[in-house]
Amino acid sequence: MLHLAYFLGFRPREISLIRLDDISFSRQELCINHRKNTNPLKLPLPEDTIKAIAAYIVGGRPKSEHRTLFLSLKAPFMPVTSGTVSHWISTWMRQLNLTSTAYWLRHTYAQNLLEVGISIYELKEMLGHKNIESTRRYLHIHTNLMRKVLFDETV
Q1: I need a surface site. Which of 4, 63, 113, 153 has the fewest CB within 10 A?
Q2: Where are the alpha helices (DSSP H) in 29-101?
Q3: Cβ(35)–Cβ(124) under 8 Å?
Q4: pLDDT digits (tens, 9 = 90+) for 57-113
């Protein structure tokens, strides 16, 4: 869950609704069918993410008829809710002495992409926003990048 929030910027709801059938290990991609804007998205999965998902399926996921990737830890094993995803991410972040949330990780994802040169329009699509104003709220001014673009300075 934490890996998907940080490396792919997924919302807790998107993480909670991932189904085993949405994952293609052979093509190394994930189809997110349940997004806030209802536009499905196919994303390439980094090798580390593929390994993390496979490790969870093999060593951590309870046996169940449910096709949802993430299940509760106690019987009866049911699909997790977005609230459960948020809770666990916050818990794990506190264990690292960080007072962060799943949405903080989503903001970090957006900022990291901006810093490596992704356009705000590409970012809008990756985050699943309907309009650019939603994406703009995720971005914080990156002073060094701003100086480079505006003044051709390297800091």
Answers
A1: 63
A2: 47-59, 82-95
A3: no
A4: 999 999 999 999 999 989 999 999 999 999 999 999 899 888 888 888 888 888 888
